[in-house]
Amino acid sequence: PEHNFIAENFVVSNCIGGVAATDPDEEGVISPGGIGYDVNCGIRLMRTNLTLPDVKDKLRHLLAALFNNIPCGLGSTSSLKLPFHELKQVLKKGAKWAVGRGYGSAEDLERTEDYGRMEGADPEKVSQRALKRGKNQLGTLGSGNHFLEIDLVEEIYLPQVAEVFGIARNQIVVTIHCGSRGLGYQVCDDYLARMRHAVDKYHISLPDRQLSCAPLTSPEGEDYFAGMAAAANYAWTNRQIIMHWTREVFQRVLNLSPRDLGMDLIYDVCHNIGKFEDHLVNGKKRRIFVHRKGATRAFPAHHPLLPSVYQSVGQPVLVPGDMGTNSYVMVGTPQAMEESWGSTCHGA
Q1: Phi-psi category of residue 28: left, alpha or beta, with phi > 0 → left and psi -120 to 50 → alpha
Q2: CA pair distance 79, 89, nearest whole angstrom
Q3: Residue 22 CB neighbours (<10 A)
Q4: Which residue has the higher pLDDT, 56 or 81?
Q5: Cα atoms found within 13 Å of the Cα of residue 6, Cβ hemisphere only
């Protein structure tokens, strides 16, 4: 049978910025290539009570302390080394595991997409090789386009929205960009290999082998979803721990209390993920599976999945620039729900 992608123009390869929705009731498929290797790569933005004069003379000390406390680079490992049984708890509980061990607060979870935990995760669907790769990498940035960045807010375009987000002109904010490290990569790699056989098994015709997939309701599809969800929970835990260590560095270097620093999480949003969501299709609400690869969720005001603090304005949408361009904090709109399954770009 033909397995139809609801989204248009998602046919040749699986490009960065691709969004595709499939319907499990109509032989819809799930594709690891439509989500990406770095499962739940995402952005986390924190506000502070600081302005540039507060940090200007200590920026070198801050950067040195951040480099010393938060490992980065290819193959970087952490001082936090978990036994496998504890790592599996991370894969089940996500950021809640980190908060339960003192890495942050319950308020952080409120301001994290899906509260930092994806339902349906099963650590038993994660290979031993993936577990070994992730065992010593919690609390690390990795390499590529991942970063931890100290930013200065230059312009405010929507003052009412910025006020709700806790953002003001000339304010210091901190951005974290990373994902599920080697564990997520291995989950994707493992299931891509399995999906290549599934394509033949289920007689799925594809324009590009990178879109190898399986029906959502098949054993292969269900296993990949459970493994992908586990990797997503690892990524949320990773960013939660990095944020906690970042707070500690700022407090120590600037000699500030947590209250005076005011480094509160604005939002954490992922951009390599697949989720079951409710959307209007031809005027009717349907439960569909949305693949986002290099695409950020962008839900509007009053969406039931947003925390109460953002119900009146919409979801914070975090779009980072590269080292030579600006980054942007945007807000979800109803138009995104109509045109792109509640999604937008993910930035650099």
Answers
A1: beta
A2: 18
A3: 26
A4: 56
A5: 25
Per the annotation, the verdict on 346 as an active-site residue is yes
* Domains of the chain, residue spans: 40-272
**Residue 25 DSSP class:** G
- Beta carbons of 336 and 300 less than 8 angstroms apart: yes
pLDDT tens across 209-261, in order?
Answer: 778 999 999 999 999 999 999 999 999 999 999 999 999 999 999 999 999 99
CATH 3.30.2290.10 fits 40-272, yes or no: no
Sign of the C-alpha dihedral computed for residues 239, 172, 145 and 298 taken in this order: positive
pTM: 0.94
Nearest to 44 by CA among 98, 85, 6, 92: 98
Phi, psi of 177 (to 5 degrees): -130, 110
Catalytic residue among 271, 291, 303, 346: 346
Instruction: Kindly state the tokens that stand for 259.
Output: 């209250």
Which of 316, 318, 311, 308 has the alpha carbon at shortest distance from 332?
Answer: 316
SS3 328: strand
Residue 51 has pLDDT above 60, yes or no: yes
What DSSP string describes 37-106? SSTT-EEEEE--S-BHHHHGGGHHHHHHHHHHHS--STT---S----HHHHHHHHHHTHHHHHHTTSS-H
The span from the CA of 17 to the CA of 188, in Å, is: 18
Q: Is the pLDDT of residue 337 over 90?
A: yes
Q: Does pLDDT of 118 surpass 80? A: yes
The C-alpha angle 31, 201, 28, rounded to 5 degrees, equals 40
Can you count the helices (H) and strands (E) in the chain?
11, 13
